[in-house]
TrEMBL record:
The gene is Rfx8. One of its GO terms (molecular function) is RNA polymerase II cis-regulatory region sequence-specific DNA binding. It comes from the Eukaryota. This is RFX8 protein. It comes from Thinocorus orbignyianus. PANTHER family: DNA-BINDING PROTEIN RFX8, RFX TRANSCRIPTION FACTOR FAMILY. Residues 5-148 form the RFX1-4/6/8-like BCD domain. InterPro entries: RFX-like (IPR039779), RFX1-4/6/8-like_BCD (IPR057321).
Length: 148
């Protein structure tokens, strides 16, 4: 039951941090437009593939990385999974379910106890926010059409 309490606290923290309600409203508008989704996907792939992210050692460069290192980059897996699902008419619930499944698989289930869950969840949240900030910054600085 203490693990359940920690999971609940972690989920509440993520909800507060990202404000899912506002994000869902915005995303529904974007997801209902074929042209907006196409531009967003293109801009995201461009920012990532051209190495515009302001992160140490381009996290997305997988050619020269150790495969064991990639397993530790769960935030990258989450972002890539979300991007792969990003298509016109994708229901926002599909994206939220994807994120929820990844959190369950990579953050919640592997944690053996309350302290470990706290650490893993905190580390994930920090890296996830850092990654999303870097993506937003890159989209802004490169005048990406999708950013507005």
């Amino acid at each position: 039951s203490s693990s359940s309490t920690e999971v609940t606290v972690f989920i509440k923290r993520l909800r507060r941090k990202t404000d899912l309600s506002n994000m869902a409203k915005t995303m529904r508008t974007v997801l209902n437009s074929n042209s907006k989704v196409t531009v967003l996907r293109s801009d995201l792939h461009s920012v990532i593939n051209q190495g515009f992210l302001d992160v140490p050692g381009n996290l997305f460069q997988t050619k020269f990385r150790n495969p064991e290192e990639l397993q530790n980059d769960i935030e990258l897996k989450c972002l890539n999974d979300l991007m792969s699902l990003l298509t016109p008419s994708t229901d926002i619930r599909v994206l939220l379910d994807c994120m929820s499944s990844n959190l369950q698989a990579f953050v919640i289930q592997p944690s053996r106890n309350k302290e470990e869950l706290r650490k893993v969840a905190s580390d994930f949240q920090l890296r996830w926010n850092f990654l999303l900030t870097a993506v937003s910054k890159a989209l802004t600085l490169n005048y990406a059409d999708s950013f507005g």
